[in-house]
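Researcher: I'm preparing a figure for a lab meeting and need a structural model of a single chain. I don't have an experimental structure, so a prediction will have to do for now. The sequence is pasted below. Please return the structure as tokens so I can convert it later.
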Amino acid sequence: MEMIVDLASWAFILAGVFFIFTGTLGMLRLPDFYTRLHAAGITDTLGTELLLIAMMLQAGWSIVTIKLLMISLFIFFTSPTATHALANAANAVGLRPFGVPEADLRPNKTGDA
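Model: Understood. Here is the structure written out token by token.
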């Protein structure tokens, strides 16, 4: 049983590293703020959650698992909210997406996205 937990843990670690690496490449290669923000949001949420799941598997049923679960829930709710707030703030100050014609952008009269 311990070997199965170790293999599952390694699978989550590798998946988390893959998403973090892919997001890092996205941060370097994507053309504008919004697409880079999307890559950072995916990296921050999914990659971190996968790594935390791997750590929970390794910790077993203990107080450490409860702490990791609380960290996981905090990241799950705050990371997408922060990403949305950054995108909304960028839109409110007039930062426009790369390659989108002005006619395709809807007017932003209230400051909300």
